[in-house]
Amino acid sequence: MRDQDFLRFPDLASRGIGGAVVYANDESFAQRENLITPAAPQFDESEFGHKGKVYDGWETRRRRSPGHDWAIVRLGAPGVVHGVVVDTSWFTGNYPPEISVEAAGLDGYPSPADLAEAEWTTLVPRSPVAGDTANRFAVADTHRYTHVRLSIHPDGGVARLRVHGEAITDPRLLVTGGLDLAALENGGRITGCSNEFYSAPTNIISPGLPRSMGEGWENARRRDGGNDWVELGLAGCGEVRLLELDTSYFLYNAPGAARVRGCDETVSDPADEGSWFSVLERTDLLPDTRHRFVVPDPRPTTRLHVDVFPDGGLARVRAHGRLTDEGHRALWLRWLNALPRAQARTVLDGLGVPGDAAEALLAARPVRKVGELPDRLAGVVGP
């Protein structure tokens, strides 16, 4: 992956998908919560408050003692981090000269005290940054993390922290049977897009209802007689039983029609046009409407290709269904293999895996087949 390629992955830390800044050792000048605001940082040169100049970011006091400042972010969607952006926009004389970023994976809902005792892994070593700049750092770590810690050396201000990566859901939480196979928080992702001139396609798989047209995917006006499209990778191989194509807030720029196709890349090559099958035939769409379509003949699929005709915006795409048995097993194995060792040991204890078997499993990762798991765990994951 090239250094800038990670920007195509969603921001796992964003408040828009449930991220939170759970602790900062200092926020004297500007509050920590600003770090994960989805919108770009703003600046009004005339705005001053009781504490001084008002900044849209996190800013600590001038440090008069050794050490550094830090803030901890709980990811809205735990996952594998491919890169981070430490954005110092508008901080010109008060930005930190250096930063570092670490990550941890913990079970449950740890308190700041728990986090202080956690095992942290360095994602970005202590590195110089520039002021008023979106400083970008690629990450090669392949583990799944739940929290990141931004350290600034020694003090100063940061406008935004973006943590780009792939979400990996906790399969222990998938107990209701059906789920949105396309949802970002369940491990869905965007795998391709024809055009994202106005807004990013990741918006269509984000949590919750849209609140404006800007929270959807909108392409440019097409003049060449073709059509636009977006492709989604599902959380795992599953059968889509109910599709939702939401054009909320798109009043005069919704697509005239849409079509959805599927492909199971576990048995065929998505690059082969013949591998794709119809999930929803070309169907007219209305503006500002949540369209729901029952899929008459659900088939196993790992990807969806949504065509819009000829162009126009979608607010959300939902693909409600169930994982296949193989998809369920694959999701469990990916999750278990990606957990940091300390969290994996906690998880295995909670699942009743004996100590010797747990240690043997940790040493054997990555595990490729359910048959390689201890008997106690294989029974949970499924045959």
TrEMBL record:
Cited SUPFAM superfamilies: Galactose-binding domain-like
UniProt keyword annotations, A-Z: Hydrolase, Purine metabolism
GO biological process: one example: allantoin catabolic process
Any one Pfam family match given in the protein's UniProt record, by short name: Allantoicase
Pathways involved: Nitrogen metabolism; (S)-allantoin degradation; (S)-ureidoglycolate from allantoate (aminidohydrolase route): step 1/1
Catalytic activity: allantoate + H2O = (S)-ureidoglycolate + urea
InterPro entries noted in UniProt: Allantoicase (IPR005164), Allantoicase_dom (IPR015908), Galactose-bd-like_sf (IPR008979)
MF GO annotations: allantoicase activity
Coiled-coil stretches noted in the UniProt entry, renumbered to this chain: none
Enzyme Commission number(s) of this protein: 3.5.3.4
Domain of life: Bacteria
Domain Allantoicase: 18-167, 187-323
HAMAP family referenced in this protein's UniProt entry, alphabetically: Allantoicase
Family that this chain belongs to: Belongs to the allantoicase family.
Entry protein name: Probable allantoicase
Native organism: Lipingzhangella halophila
